[in-house]
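Lecture 7 notes: from sequence to structure.

We start with a single chain of 301 residues. Read the sequence below before looking at the structure.
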Amino acid sequence: MLSGARTGPLASFTRMDGTAPLRSETIDRVRVLTLSRPDEYNTINPALRDALGDALDEAERDRGVNAVLLRAEGPAFCAGYQLDWATAEQAEAESGAARVWDSVADVQMIGRYASTWAKLHTISKPTIAAVQGWCIAGGTNMVLHTDLIVCAESARFGYPPMRVWGIPEAPWVWIARLGLERAKRYLFTGDELDGREAERLGLVLECVPDEVLDEHARDLAHRIAMLPLEQLQMIKWSLNDTARHMYQPDSSRLLGCLFDGVARHTQEGQDFVARSMEVGFRQAVRERDDPFGDYGSRPRS
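Now the structure, written as tokens:
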């Protein structure tokens, strides 16, 4: 178990309201980054994006860090983007807009998020994620960029906005993990995968019981961090170069960000926004997912 000496102080990345969306500490050459808004299911907002980006940059610079472990507090790893404000913002912009949708500005806006998640792939040090509960939509944009994913049996993965109002910001990560045909199967439907199915299909490295997730992920991160730093960096650079030629991550990310914006401004996307304004975002999502019987619309046992 990773329980050795902490080589630096516990750091937090504090929001304007005084709460921290992320905590950082270093234990035995592993930088542990913890999403720390459990009551909000660690949903994504600009504060979380910026805190994670800063924390990854800091981990990259610190030669006392050999690996990065990304984990989360609470029942969910990340339930996606904090989107109730986004539908309201789009509705307001479209109601009195003097100009048409600015696709370049939209790509630049969502690209800031996509570029942050990409750092989990591009920094020179191995990144490991420990996932429990919901890891859906924007949560998958984030976590599928890590080098290795260990999940709990409670984990649920998927991209429900495929059904209306969005696509993944970096489609290549789905293809790299699932292969083209299985990536199409889950992105054509937005269906969810539980932890065991995610392990069987290769979306994650392994699935373990919830009660051992944290210890198991920390042990793996510690085992990796035992290698010399420069050895780890050379391994990751060489493997990432192969992935770059196979999947063209930069092009995939640009296309994903562009089409994500398009999906939010099609007639179907605008109808979804209008419905969200009429009945509330949560109810609009329920209406989207009820026919599929999954995510929040799954029958209660």
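The chain is about 50% helix and 15% strand. Keep this in mind for problem set 3.
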